[in-house]
Specification:
2 helices, about 55% helix
């Protein structure tokens, strides 16, 4: 037995299937359009973020380069400054050992002096001390002999001006030589 299907039913069935497929395609297409809009918006946001981050990166790199340049400049000066601070500490220790008061301590910018194949770091200091005549002379002797120095350096006295009676005030100009590595 054969079932005959009417052409109208087949046409209606074909239209229904076509409508279902078309609806499914339209739904999928609209979802893809919506997703594409979201992705487009997200892409724009990400591109703006990338631009901002790229600008920030350039700013930070510029700041880093400036900081590295400043660090390099500072490092070139730092060892000399540390040596001078250490010399000052030694001078205060010597003054304390000799029972004199180191009233002031000033120094010049460190320089270099080459003797043969050896280069020395040279700093000029001006010291003002007060104390008894014997203690001031002990201080001057300690500077000349270098026995009380904690660092490997030596001092050359350039000038000594003393005034006073029992309590002597002395201004001492000296150069400190240290081996430069």
């Amino acid at each position: 037995m054969k079932i005959k299907i009417n052409k109208k039913i087949l046409l209606i069935l074909g239209i229904v299937i076509f409508a279902i497929v078309l609806g499914s395609l339209v739904r999928t297409y609209s979802q893809q359009i919506q997703e594409q809009k979201q992705l487009s918006t997200s892409l724009e946001v990400q591109q703006m973020l990338l631009t901002r981050l790229t600008n920030e990166k350039e700013e930070w790199e510029s700041k880093r380069n400036k900081a590295e340049s400043l660090l390099d400049t500072s490092q070139k000066k730092f060892p000399q400054s540390v040596e001078c601070i250490e010399y000052g500490e030694d001078l205060f220790d010597i003054a304390d050992d000799c029972n004199v008061d180191l009233a002031s301590l000033s120094m010049s910018e460190p320089g270099s002096k080459k003797v043969g194949a050896v280069t020395y770091s040279v700093s000029t200091f001006v010291l003002k001390i007060t104390g008894s005549m014997d203690n001031v002379l002990d201080f001057i002797y300690a500077l000349r002999t270098g026995d009380d120095f904690e660092l490997p350096w030596s001092a050359t006295l350039n000038a000594v001006n003393m005034a006073g009676g029992n309590e002597v005030e002395a201004t001492i100009t000296l150069q400190i030589y240290a081996y430069k590595r």
